[in-house]
Amino acid sequence: xxxxxxxxxxxxxxxxxxxxxxxxxxxxxxxxxxxxxxxxxxxxxxxxxxxxxxxxxxxxxxxxxxxxxxxxxxxxxxxxxxxxxxxxxxxxxx
Amino acid sequence: xxxxxxxxxxxxxxxxxxxxxxxxxxxxxxxxxxxxxxxxxxxxxxxxxxxxxxxxxxxxxxxxxxxxxxxxxxxxxxxxxxxxxxxxxxxxxxxxxxxxxxxxxxxxxxxxxxxxxxxxxxxxxxxxxxxxxxxxxxxxxxxxxxxxxxxxxxxxxxxxxxxxxxxxxxxxxxxxxxxxxxxxxxxxxxxxxxxxxxxxxxxxxxxxxxxxxxxxxxxxxxxxxxxxxxxxxxxxxxxxxxxxxxxxxxxxxxxxxxxxxxxxxxxxxxxxxxxxxxxxxxxxxxxxxxxxxxxxxxxxxxxxxxxxxxxxxxxxxxxxxxxxxxxxxxxxxxxxxxxxxxxxxxxxxxxxxxxxxxxxxxxxxxxxxxxxxxxxxxxxxxxxxxxxxxxxxxxxxxxxxxxxxxxxxxxxxxxxxxxxxxxxxxxxxxxxxxxxxxxxxxxxxxxxxxxxxxxxxxxxxxxxxxxxxxxxx
Lengths: 94, 473
Known about the structure:
By secondary structure, chain A is mainly alpha-helical.
């Protein structure tokens, strides 16, 4: 299966990033490698095998219901492209 | 009725009343300045490890047991993907094919008819952030992001808006009594999506539409009415119903199309690798079952059938779990049920309203309430004096007996003293006396009132009545 130029363009848009030409080529190759790996897995006969959700066989890993301090607002917003009145600002939706 | 049948199913989201969020320690407190209840986990930063809040599982199981569900001994979380800025991770951690609770039901009465509504499933998931739509930009507040929710999905068992309304009332009551959600509609703690289709008798179900944004019971009922009629008009006009998601505009009173419905496979559900499966033992489930309170419907049944109260009283007493518990404890302390009920529905409700207090702020202990009713039933104070004592008990933490003693409120049952007052009142009111003797038997109540006033409410009214009758013979 070939990873097309269009698929990378779609992902670039969804991820809101702009790739340079060298990044573009590197990403395209990386995604192609992932698809090739997945394709090689398709060849394995898994008819009798139970699905494995996680390689870690733990269960009921939970925490107590306790409040812990989080981020200051400035920290939370520090990575945002745009902010306004303490909020993340995104293109109009409705 | 027309040739069509309406088929309705609900999805109800209830925010759980935990202190912290579902996968992180941020507070779930409503409000707060925008983006101040956030951390790397709930704001979707890369490389974080979410950890499930134990209380969320417990509350979901508790709600499930109260709604007669089977609890899944093995349950798991899944990622539900969609791209929308209210969801910073680009997926919602939810449950797909292994929800915590399955196959429950709620019994309701609508339009005088009993009806059983099936519960398909209940699962846990995280709430999304809040979008504030502006003219050309949208602002995002992630405070609500990660607040724990349960989603309760019903079978398509509803036929009309009355049943929808009755179910939502019953569900709200159960969630309040089990104390898993505060169900504050105005804070969005209980929200409802409605799926509705119509079909002709004997034909398969029609295409359904989904209505969102129903944040009051009356909005849900109005949207059901509107949509059922709209679909009839479309079908009768030869049109086809398309599988749309509609947004209810409560002010305008109509639905508009929000988006065409995605299929489940467009959400690319897959098992959440960061959260380990929940494996619940029989012992764990039974421990939670033991914490379930007696539910409101059962209490009403007991009040009417065992205690002999009118249904009206039973309804009012069970509006709040606190009041219902207060009533039960007062009765357990030896008071007569109807006497307790009268004081709760009368004086206590009035005093709470006057002071703008919530029911759980009743400042009286059940034992003290029972003691007061005992003073009344023994004739130490009159019923109306009892109202005054309750009023004082709202302000001071003294026993009713002390209040009565300190303020000299005890009823005067001394025949000599009452006779003196009766004679004086008769002498001062010749006209009323003449009316009474002329056959207006009811005129005597005016005289009783005068004596009570003279005694400042302390005379035993039954004795006053009796003595007046004797003196006027």
